[in-house]
Amino acid sequence: MPVLRSAVSVFDPDLTFLPAVAHKLDFSEHEAEVPLHVHRKGQLILALHGAVTCTAGNEIWIVPPNCGVWIPGGVPHSARATANARLNYLFVEPEAAKLPENSCTLSISSMIREMVERLARERADYIAGSHAARIARVLLDELAEMPRERFNLPISGHPKIRAIADALTAEPSNRSTLSDWAKRVAMSDRSLARLLIRETGLTFGRWRQQLHLVVALRELASGETVQNVAAGLGYESVNAFITMFKKALGRTPAQYFAQRSTPTHPA
To answer: Nearest-CA neighbor of 219 among 25, 80, 107, 106?
Structure first.
């Protein structure tokens, strides 16, 4: 069985000062865990197949279909991909485009997706003024127009919030109440509730629901069934899970992924 290499070791985007370079990764050939690292260039992560979850700053990001996670240059980040994940990375030189200063999820049009795919077939040392350079320029102009989406889980750097997030991420079916968690982290219910709102902007119930949404999107994108995802998140019935999903995203899982499989355009 071949030894899998870390995805970080196969491509260094900071070796070039070109405005944008792209790179394709198939995680059947690489370790699922991408360790914490940082580079000068900003990075857009696109999932072609499967799913990837990124941690950047104090937030967890999911890369759903037809979206991308943008991580500005200089921000330490790590990731975990499903074994069937195939990704395209777009690395952008600082100041090369008017892109968000903070990590976020961007809606991605079919044109941008195809242009990143095309640029990934070019060498990382293409010549300024070449066809590849013109593709990169138009690509960056289009990318700057893409609207943001909300597919993130704020987790905070506070050790007690981080401990709860780590536990729920490892076991998302855990149905412990706010009171249960307060006892585990040696706080009163009221103090923990205030801390969660201060650190994440969400109540405990909304925060856990957002975590379930992030996990659900990752698992469904990797090919898992709705029934298995609902069970893995601790829902008593599939209908209860579908209700949560529809309330959050306005569509059932089947409708959401059917819509996301069609070309998208900026809002």
So the answer is: 80
